[in-house]
Amino acid sequence: MPQTLDAVAVRGWCALALDALGRDREAIDAINVYPVADGDTGTNLYLTMESAAQAVEAVFAAYPEPPVYAGVPPTADVVRAMAHGALLGARGNSGTILAQLLRGMAEVVAAGEGDLALALDRAASAAYRAVAHPVEGTVLTVAAAAAKAAAGANGTPAAVAQAAYAGARDALDATPSQLAALGRAGVVDAGGRGLVTMLGALVQALSGQAPVVRREAPVPVPVDDCPAEAAGAGPAFEVIYLLEAGDAAVDRLRARLDRLGESLVVVGGDGLWNVHVHVDDAGAAVEAGVEAGRPHRIRITHFEQPTPVEPPREQVQRAVVAVVPGEGLAGLCSEAGATTVLARPGEAPASGELVEAIRRAHAREVVLLPNDAELRHTAAAAVEQARAEGIRVALIPTRAAVQGIAALAVHAPERRFDEDVVAMTSAAGATRHAELAVAERQSWTMAGVCQAGDVLGLIDGDVVVIGQDLAGTARTVLDRMLAAGGELVTLVLSADAPPDLAAQLESHVGKAHLAVDTVVYEGGRQGVPLLIGVE
Known about the structure:
It contains 18 helices and 16 strands. By secondary structure, it is α/β, with parallel strands linked by helices. The longest helix is centred in the first third of the chain and has 24 residues, at about 5-30.
């Protein structure tokens, strides 16, 4: 095993940390009581780390194996990718802080300094600066303790990592005495526990041996012994977005968001930031981002009020989980009995989200419809994890939402599982798929050179038509697809599509292709103006 924090060790750490967070995710979620008891800290840490690990793997994939190249990229490229991936995929308060911790470490390692203690110190300092109002007894305290313990250690990087892990673990055990919410609940800080898990993975990556983990529960601390803490229900919304902006604009944004809400964390740099805040006026928080720069990947989550605990519902025999590109199809698939995962434009779901949806389906048998060719590896990873948890899962490799609709239409839970999967796979395979998109820039395609603003018609993933208007390009695509025959055309329109587009295309199919039926669905905001399926 490697003994220095080089590219290979960073890659191994990411993989080990992701695996460890996956094992501990539910336990960490269960103790999540601060700053909001929404039970998602473990999940957010897992999804953030998954994004970091995927970015690292992408860097390694870009470097060929011998004899062309050694197959190992420069360490600086790997750690920067890790930090950037975490920034892009940061989820929730805990994930945002984790992204800043990794960024702090990356700054030291990428500079060529092999001092792990210095990297951990930079990480803790960066995290404290990112939080508008740091609170002790949280992951910040645990990170600072890890850095302090590492600074007092001597020997190999593995020994430094072991010292950091031990210091973090001791600090974690003390968090209930530092934060009233933890003391009342008799739990340690969830984000801090996640960081201890990650440091344990770092020890294993550098030494080849997992650290000994103590499992005893923390002792509840009487409320009177805890520092005072403000009471109240808290803000109604969590707002998160990526922001392209300069440093001065971000400084002004921090001040404005600090007045609007709480739990403010802004991480990043070099023109790209991840903004997290809890507010009552979500629109005002987004508007502040618009004034500061260009926000995107905006997520707004409404904090649900506590509800009486219901008895666990009985597990069903079979369920379908479908990834859908828009709210309209999410509603359609939900009505058909499927558990849905929304894929926002430019933001594909991670494997952790798919696993969570499989669990949420609460079934012994699950059919997964990824509905996107780019999700094949992500979906396969989710299936493997779900199977390891004892759920029987079948992955139907649907490449488009219209194939998922066709598969869902023939789903029959009363059939044997294998028979149902075969029928759904056959229906999906018999459905050709197309989409219309608008070119963002000049580029080469299989149909020639397109310019920005051109309408592109893609059939089965390949550009076959370049047109100037949506309706004309759609008619050409439909004619090409129906030239090989077909009985049913499915049109899924974006909320941004022209209001008369469906009527125009229905009329065209009815006149030019006799005996072919057309069905139209409203897809909501789905990234492209039109999806087409032909069965």
